[in-house]
Amino acid sequence: QVHLVESGGGLVQAGGSLRLSCVASGVTFSEYVIGWFRQVPGKEREFVAGIQWTGPVTYYADSVKGRVTISRDNGKNAAYLQMNSLQVEDTAVYYCARRRDWPPDNFYLRAPGSWAGWGQGTQVTVSS
Q1: Strands 46-51 and 3-7
Q2: Is residue 103 helix, strand or coil?
Q3: How far apart (Å, rounded) are the C-alpha atoms in residues 27 and 25?
Q4: Is residue 72's pLDDT more than 90?
Q5: What is the pLDDT of residues 101-111, one digit of tens each?
Q6: Is the pLDDT of residue 1 over 70?
Q7: Which of 37, 48, 54, 103 has its CA 20 to 30 Å from the CA of residue 81?
Q8: Which helix (H) or strand (E) holds 46?
Q9: How far from 110 is each of 72, 74, 125, CA to CA, in Å?
């Protein structure tokens, strides 16, 4: 059974930074593409970033491009989301998820329903 556990969320002022972690167990981590999503109450889960099996290919949502960096360390079974220049609009619960493929159409990469193994999430709150 694959388990993903997110951590690193917290309360930060606008303009600040946070680094989220996603640690996997029960899996050969390098066999999976890892993605980060976020969700606010009443809204659909939103794709943030994805990284291929061993990197370095990544893909970002337009809303975070240039402020967010996704990375991974397969030796530690971990993926990370470095978030800089945080904005109030970034406030959400952040989740990581896994998949085996990297679809040629990014539409499918962004679709939450095409991912699996969701963690419990970590809350990020950005204050003004």
Answers
A1: unpaired
A2: coil
A3: 6
A4: yes
A5: 999 999 999 99
A6: no
A7: 103
A8: strand 46-51
A9: 19, 22, 23
Strand 92-99: give its sheet, edge to edge.
10-13, 122-127, 92-99, 33-39, 46-51, 58-60
Q: Which amino acid is at 6?
A: E
3-class secondary-structure state, position 118: coil
Q: What average pLDDT does the chain have?
A: 95
Amino acid letter, residue 14 = A
CA angle 17, 29, 116 (to 5 degrees): 80
Angle (CA) 7-30-66 rounded to 5° is 55
**Nearest to residue 82, comparing CAs of 93, 71, 90?**
71
Token duo for residue 128? 């003004």
In sequence order, the 6+-apart residues with CB closer than 8 A to the CB of 41 are none
Amino acid type, 48: V
And the tokens for 9? 């969320």
